[in-house]
Amino acid sequence: MIEKNIRDIFSQYPEVLYGFADTSYSAYAGDYQSALVFAVPYGEQLTVETYSEERFEKGIQDAKRILEKILAQLKETLDEHAVAYYIPPVAQDDEEELKAPFSFKFAAVHAGLGWIGKNDVVITGKYGPRVRLSAVLINERFVYGEKIIRNHCPEDCHKCVDACPHKALHGVPWNIDSFRSEIIDYRLCNEKRSLYLKTHGRKNACGLCMAACPFGT
Ligand code: SF4
Ligand code: SF4
Questions:
Q1: Residue 202's pLDDT band (boundaries 50, 70, 90)?
Q2: Is 217 a domain residue?
Q3: 213 lines ligand 1 (CB under 6 A)
Q4: Cα separation of 174 and 115, whole Å?
Q5: Strand, helix or coil at 10?
């Protein structure tokens, strides 16, 4: 019943991708058996040709509004069912390792929404990397998506790597056992994105290396 109610919510947003993952791979497995993860497409699907900071930022904010609406509906339903759940924060809480407490990316891979590209972000078949992710940990079993264990980037594609102005991407194809450090110099990327705190009030998202991706365009 709870799964049906959740699926009913998503049927109101046909553009949004979603799935369920078994959390047994994560540190949260003891408290929450599953993760519901969803991907809201950015308001505008930009390419390198159409990219601008302003348009990219607007697309993110448009997606964020829809995401928050969905989260509010989910909360209401989960409260009605009196099931234990937790909405993990997006932000990193570990400034040393630059990791969020619960990785939405990894949950998306486990739910079968996409793979990690050479730009270190989730690539969905429909929108490429142009999505905003969210997740809810729920202590309930669901019908799970099929975990994706390797990338589907064309072998000879390096568009994201070439688009990065700081050469932070190593051009290494991802698989489920990859370490993040093999794919990206995340400290360098973080340092460069943090420069946007002054102008945007937050770190810049992965703009150019996302806009360059041929998936979803
Ligand atoms: S966010 Fe910017 S610095 Fe980081 S990998 Fe993408 S293009 Fe490079
Ligand atoms: S630009 Fe090419 S290599 Fe980079 S994530 Fe997209 S498909 Fe993969």
A1: low
A2: no
A3: no
A4: 8
A5: helix
